[in-house]
Structures are given as C-alpha cells and as structure tokens.
Amino acid sequence: MQTDHIRLANQLCFSVYNTSRLFTKFYQRALSDFGLTYSQYLVLMALWEEDGQTLHQIGDALYLESNTLTPLLRRMEDAGWLTREKSAHDRRQLTVHLTAEGQESQGPIQQAIAECIGKEHLDIDQYNDTQETISQLETALRTLLTDESKMEE
Amino acid sequence: MQTDHIRLANQLCFSVYNTSRLFTKFYQRALSDFGLTYSQYLVLMALWEEDGQTLHQIGDALYLESNTLTPLLRRMEDAGWLTREKSAHDRRQLTVHLTAEGQESQGPIQQAIAECIGKEHLDIDQYNDTQETISQLETALRTLLTDESKMEE
DNA sequence: CTTCAATTAATCGTGCACGATTGAAAGTAG
DNA sequence: CTACTTTCAATCGTGCACGATTAATTGAAG
Prior knowledge:
Chain A is mainly alpha-helical. The first copy, chain A, contains seven helices and two strands. The longest helix of chain A has 30 residues, at about 1-30.
C-alpha cells in the first residue's frame, strides 16, 4: 500500500525529529554549566580528535557548511574555546585551533556528560543495536540525497 | 566502562541529529512545491486528523509550545492554510481551523511525498523495526526529561 | 464579591540550519 | 602573463526551537 509507506515514513521521521530534540535537551543539561550548546560540543569533539582543522574539515566531520559554522565558530572564539586564523599557505581557508581552555576542558565536560547519563539512569547499553540501525538509515538518506545532486552535474 | 557509555551516547545522539536533518531535507523536496516546511506539514497532519484544535492541543501532539507555534501558525495563516481565532468559551485559548485550501491539499501533498519516497527508491519497509526502536528511545528520553521537572515541584 | 493562584497565548532574545549569493584567493589553460 | 574556472569563507534572509518572561483571562478560596 502506498499510504502505508507514507505513514511509516511519517512516523519514522517524526520519531527521529523528536528524539533529536530530546537528546539535545539531555546534553544541554550537562553542557549548560560550561555555556556550551550541543553544536558547539560537536565542534570541540572534532578538535579534540584533531586540533588545527580548517573550517572545511570540521564541516566535513559534522556535515555543516560555512553558513552555519562561520557564526558558530565566531561565538566559540568569543567564548574563549578556540582561535580562528587564515591559513598561511592558502589564505582562503580558515584554520581553527583550540585554546588551552578548550584543551583542558575535555575531561571536565565529558565527566559532566557521563554523570548526567549515570544519574539519570539512561540505560545506554540497551541502545547498542539502535546506534547501528539508525546509522544505516542515516547512510541511506545521505546517499539518496547526495546522489540526487550528482544527477544535476 | 564509563567512557564507552559516553562514546555510545555521543554516536547515538550524533546519528539521530544527522538523520533528523537528512529526513527534513528529504521531506523538503516534496513540500517545497507547496511552500511548506516540515514543521508546518506536521501542523497540517495534526489538523487533518482533527480540525479545530487549540494551539495547546496542537502543541501536545507535536511537543511544541506557544513560543514556537505562535509565529509558525501566523505564517501558516498568512499563507492561507488555516485561520486563527480566540475560542468563544475561553478567550485565553486560540482555536485553529483549516481553510478550504488546507483541507483540499491533503491529497496532493501526501501524493507528492509518496512519489518522493517511490522515485528516490527509499526502501521504507526495511525500517519497520527502526521505527519501533527509535520510538522506545524517544519514550525513554521523554520520561527521563519530564520526570526530572516533576522532581522540582 | 474579592483576592490569589493557575492557565494560556504572546513576546523577547539567542542560536542554530540552510538555500542562495558574494568576493577573495588559488588553480588552470592558452 | 591573461582569462577562465574552481574553491573557499563570509554574508544575507528565513524559519524554526526554546528558555524566560509578560499580560490577559479564568478558576478557586475565603
């Protein structure tokens, strides 16, 4: 039935939309003490993984572009988490480095999140399969949406 | 391991966040022809289900509050999808009714989404289990977050 | 009836997301 | 070297989300 397809897609999309908002609120509890948003936490994670990335590289990691990242990184620079400077070898690019504050905060921030997960009794182990399943859906949607833009070339 | 908990939570949250954005983009393809956003489509679905709901009732259905719905409904009224009027029996409340346009568009809009699902070869049946799993996670997070606010009372 | 509490939509300010465009810089071809 | 193309970050405008507050209306208690 075609209508069943729509109903399933609607329910699935709505659940994912709701869960995303709820997860963001959940993280916000731990992050608000540091004055961080979830998106800003994602940037920190990318830089903890590898410091000195360009805006473009961070965007590749988080699936975000300059229209979102430029103001976001500026706010994080103002807050003292990182520095922004034009790359020496290619002045079009922007290189982002963590400040000492940004580096040293990794432990405390992740501990705050860990406490939030523990204290709230979020049985996260239960969702090991969920992570795989949702990742597959994510991949399917991404290829579906990016293949389309390739068609136009 | 505590760090494993964080890593799983981070991956899960990031996947849900990405999937939500991708799903919104996917729906946007079908909805843009009608000048609708995904959030506005959710409001239409709630009103197709039951017309004449109050802002509060719509908010209960979509987990949104007046700070989001008031401007959203105003834009939809401006676009001709619905009408907003104060309830007769309780002038604090706002009753929302579909216009003829809003009612008649249900078929075409859902057909556009169905075509989008079909044409893009999104094998949605494959995600029957995913819907259940993500719904459980959604419920867990919601009770977790709303029980907390009850503690403060 | 009067006072106080509760409910409701609206308002305000901030921070994403994102489609679209711009301008600068770098790369490429002739 | 010059002209053209590509690749960047930045900018612009719109529409959510959402914490916090406000003002109007209703309900409840005395």
